[in-house]
Amino acid sequence: MVGAIVTAVVIFFRNRRGNRVVVSRVLQSPQVRVSERLRSSLEIRYKGNSVETIVLNRLRVTNTGTATIESMEFKLVLSSVEGSLEYFEVEVLDPLNKTNVQKQDKSFTVSRPFLNPKRAYKEEVLQLNIFSNTAVAYFIIGGGKGWYSKFEERSRSEQDSLRYLKRSGLAFAILFTAYTGLELFASFTGDTRLSAEILLRIEVVMVALLAIILGFAFIKVKGLGD
Fold it and tell me: How many CB atoms lie within 10 A of CB 76?
């Protein structure tokens, strides 16, 4: 029974593999505004002009697929959450210095000759710092042969959930190993009574862990389809 469930889980995740560029917002700072009391001694300037507010958005760009994406290019369109978007600037942090950014009116295009998969090249993560006068929302446009792009919000709670999912998967792997070992022990020694009791308890815990893992997987896949 357990073997069949494990096989189904492996096939499920294998079928979900694909090449995609994921742009994740990992930080949006509070709006910084200079108070009236400090304006005589503190000033924020943009292109030589004094501005009242500034907001930082930090985005991460990763290839979450399994193969290198050639000629990667996508566009991010900005829209203000409140008020009007009067200015924005983009800073790129690329470990290989191969990313090019072309700024347009309320949008910018990011291009790179290639982007390796993160699971094989963990250091190849691009970071975009966007400075603007107001909080903004993003709409992504981009894709090519064998890949597509997606924008997502990555809150701290979601990151904690993903860490919890990884730990659940590790616990399941340990329990599965113990389960297999006990089955082999029972077959060699003939002590089926004690082993059966232990195996039953392990099965209950494994089913609970599988329910957690599949629940997270369903939420993740549902998010990819949105």
Answer: 24
